[in-house]
């Protein structure tokens, strides 16, 4: 083995060790009743501008600052990072989901890579399968690499699976990843959710952030 080839092997091994655990899978196509299909179609059609749903601008800014600091290494650009977080929060709340859960899911599904594509063809931050666009999107030209489109579909689909599983997050996550009945993926998302992305609003943070000008995006 040449020196250059040996170095290439070492670098590849180091990258494999350093890479975050990603369980990008694929939602499995299942026929939907007409009523469910109509409800999901309506859920992905809203065009309201995303915003942070907090009682005060101080609470919104406190959450955004904490989440932004945690995400900074993965998304160095502050403007893009805050746009991403505001959209995650809006779409998660709109679907009745904990935004921290959605962040944990994105970490495991795509490692926050906007243009990630799984071996099964799932796309974007939340690794949405293209068949969903035809099934509930109304038009076949929606771009699943678009930030808001991807998060809208991903949150709507996860909410759908939670409803099917009567609120059982573990089983709903298994359905989302196409790995229902297997523990590694749900456990990884739950660990990311309750570990890295957990958030407790503190009065001191709100007081400090309340003295700062609120972002126009909120």
Give a concise summary.
This protein is mostly helical and 218 residues long. Helices cover 56% and strands 0% of the residues. The protein is globular, with a radius of gyration of 19 Å.
User: Can you tell me the CATH architecture?
Assistant: Orthogonal Bundle
Radius of gyration: 19 Å
**Count of alpha/pi helices:** 10
How would you classify the helix and strand content by structural class?
A: mainly alpha
Shape: globular
Count of domains: 1
Q: Strand percentage, roughly?
A: under 5%
In the CATH scheme, what's the topology name?
Lysozyme
The separation of the N and C termini measures: 57 Å
pLDDT averaged over residues: 82
Count of individual beta strands:
0
Supply the CATH class.
Answer: Mainly Alpha
What are the segments in which pLDDT stays under 50 over at least 5 consecutive residues? 3-20
Helix content: 55-70%
Biggest sheet features: none
Please provide the ordered H/E string of secondary-structure elements.
Answer: HHHHHHHHHH
Characterization of this structure:
- By secondary structure, the protein is mainly α.
- It has one domain: Lysozyme (Orthogonal Bundle).
- The protein is 56% helix and 0% strand.
- The protein has 10 helices and no strands.
- Helix 8 crosses helix 9.
- The longest helix has 18 residues.
